[in-house]
Amino acid sequence: MGDLWLSRRRLLFTAGAGAIGVTVFGSCSSSGPSSPPAGSPEPPVPAASGAVAGDWRRVQMGVAAYILVRGNEAAIVDLGTVGSESRIEEALKAAGAGWRSVKHIVLTHLHDDHVGGLAEVAPLVKATIHAGAGDLGSILSPRELKPLADGDEIFGMRIIDTPGHTLGHISVFEPATGVLVAGDALRTTGGLEGSDPQYTANEELANTSIRKLAAMDIKAILPGHGEPLTAGASKALKELAAGLPA
Ligand SMILES: [Zn+2]
Fold first, then answer.
1. How far is the CA of 165 from the centre of ligand 1 (A)?
2. Mean pLDDT within 207-225
3. What's the pLDDT at 37?
4. What are phi and psi of 189, to 5 degrees?
5. Which burial class, exposed, middle or buried, applies to 64 when counting CB atoms under 10 A from its CB (0-12, 13-18, 19+)?
């Protein structure tokens, strides 16, 4: 089974502003694709060189930001604390991109450790800068912010409303790979957990958001705090949801 998954080749090509992910099976095509046997662990989401899952790269800071580069176009999800722009720039360069490549910025929520880099980054990019409609008014920005709503699609990324941590919190899901950039709706600092209760605006909403995510086909979780969870994410998320108060 390991060979089967290693032989997967994921081809990404852009069509206009969107992107399509295609999975083809290499040497195993003669025997046909098969699912892993029941009960076996889920294989990790394949990652491009330097990426943590799919084409997603993690900017290494106290709180994570994530960048997605496809061809000469890039997206950034969250901007870290004040002073994060040099770390983000390093990550863009490592991906063969730069500030000029950045066309899309998505802010998951209004907290300073996710939007702190905005004042420094905004003058460097021509990107459209987005935030959830519910948090947007509370984010201090030198540029206009565009509101995002549940189901919106940008650059092959689907916006998922995940209120609770803040009332306008959003997450970013890439259907082609099953990668979820979770902001602070989920964290992995001590196993997979939901929003940290001491920073949660509405715990009931936060739990509802976890149940919503657990019902999706999420294969990898890229959180703001903690390491990426790139194997067994779906199972861990369903277990987390099942353990929540009714
Ligand atoms: Zn937060």
1. 7
2. 98
3. 53
4. -65, -25
5. buried
Which domains, ranges and CATH numbers included, belong to the chain? 53-242 (3.60.15.10)
CA of 109 to the centre of ligand 1 (A): 7
Distance 175 CA to ligand 1 centre (A): 24
DSSP state of 145: P
Model pLDDT for residues 11-38, shown as the tens digit of each residue: 333 333 333 343 333 333 333 344 455 5
Q: 69 alpha carbon to ligand 1 midpoint, in Å?
A: 25
Query: For 225, left (φ over 0), alpha (ψ -120 to 50), or beta?
Result: beta
Q: What distance in Å separates the CA atoms of residue 116 and residue 110, rounded to the nearest whole number? A: 9
Distance CA 152, CA 162 (A): 13
Tell me the CA–centroid distance for residue 189 and ligand 1, in Å: 14
How are beta strands 65-70 and 73-77 bridged, if at all? Answer: antiparallel
CA of 40 to the centre of ligand 1 (A): 34
pLDDT surpasses 50 at 119: yes
Ligand 1 centroid–CA 196 distance in Å is 8
What pTM was estimated for this model as a whole? 0.83
Owner of token pair 């003058």:
123
Using only the alpha carbons of the chain, give its radius of gyration: 18
Q: What is the mean pLDDT of the chain?
A: 87
- How far does residue 199's CA lie from ligand 1's centre (Å)? 7
